[in-house]
């Protein structure tokens, strides 16, 4: 029996190591898929580099916009430079229906923030100059960095806007 006891202890300790190894392997696998998920979701996040920036010019104001990395933005950038007359809607946004459809992936955003640039449907470009809650779905395009003078620049009524 005395010889069997050390063997049983060794067997139990090996079993514990195997269990810990399995747990560690499971944690590592979970962490790896979590990292993969965050990489996938980052495709829709704002990107800060020259390729993913756009300038918006309204009257004497110039605004820098950080763009999202998605197919909508890729297609929109092919249309630049773009000078359009945007129309007023609801005293919180300017919109313009593009001549062509862009790829879209509308999501229910719940909250619109001042400076958001979105696509409504597959061809309506929208700049929001007020924050509010919404039940509508949009495809994110980007966000204007400094919105201090945005409402003043866009004013009331229709306005000429250049995207480049």
Could you characterize the architecture of this molecule?
The protein is of the alpha+beta class and 164 residues long. The chain has 2 domains: 4-43; 50-163, Cyclophilin. The protein is built from 3 helices and 11 strands; from the N terminus they run αββαββββββββαβ. It has helices at 4-41, 71-77, 150-154, and strands spanning 53-58, 61-67, 82-89, 93-97, 107-108, 111-112, 116-120, 124-128, 132-133, 137-144, 159-163. The strands form 2 sheets. It has an 8-stranded antiparallel β-barrel with strand order 1-2-10-7-8-4-3-11. β1 and β2 (61-67) form a beta hairpin. It starts with a helix and ends with a strand.
In short:
With 164 residues, the chain is an alpha+beta fold. 30% of the residues lie in helices and 34% in strands.
For the largest beta-sheet, the strand count, sense and barrel status come to: 8 strands, antiparallel, barrel
Count of discrete domains: 2
Evaluate the radius of gyration. Answer: 26 Å
Helix content: 25-40%
Parts with pLDDT < 50 across at least 5 consecutive residues: 17-43
Q: Helix and strand succession?
A: HEEHEEEEEEEEHE
Number of strands: 11
What is the overall silhouette? globular
CATH architecture of the largest domain: Beta Barrel
User: What's the total helix number?
Assistant: 3
Q: What structural class do the secondary elements suggest?
A: alpha+beta
Distance between the termini: 85 Å
Give me the secondary-structure topology.
Layout lengths: L3 H38 L11 E6 L2 E7 L3 H7 L4 E8 L3 E5 L9 E2 L2 E2 L3 E5 L3 E5 L3 E2 L3 E8 L5 H5 L4 E5 L1
Antiparallel strand pairs: 1-2, 1-11, 2-10, 3-4, 3-11, 4-8, 5-10, 6-9, 7-8, 7-10
């Amino acid at each position: 029996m005395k010889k069997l006891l050390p063997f049983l202890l060794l067997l139990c300790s090996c079993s514990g190591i195997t269990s810990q190894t399995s747990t560690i392997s499971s944690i590592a696998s979970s962490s790896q898929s979590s990292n993969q998920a965050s990489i996938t979701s980052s495709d829709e996040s704002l990107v800060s580099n020259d390729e993913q920036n756009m300038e918006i010019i309204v009257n004497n104001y110039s605004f820098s916009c950080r763009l999202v990395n998605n197919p909508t933005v890729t297609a929109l950038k092919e249309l630049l430079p773009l000078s359009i007359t945007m129309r007023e809607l609801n005293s919180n946004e300017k919109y313009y229906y593009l001549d062509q459809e862009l790829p879209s992936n509308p999501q229910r955003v719940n909250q619109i923030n001042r400076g958001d640039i979105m696509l409504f449907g597959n061809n309506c470009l929208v700049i929001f100059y007020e924050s509010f809650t919404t039940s509508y779905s949009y495809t994110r395009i980007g966000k204007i960095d400094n919105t201090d003078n945005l409402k003043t620049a866009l004013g009331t009524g229709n306005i000429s806007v250049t995207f480049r």
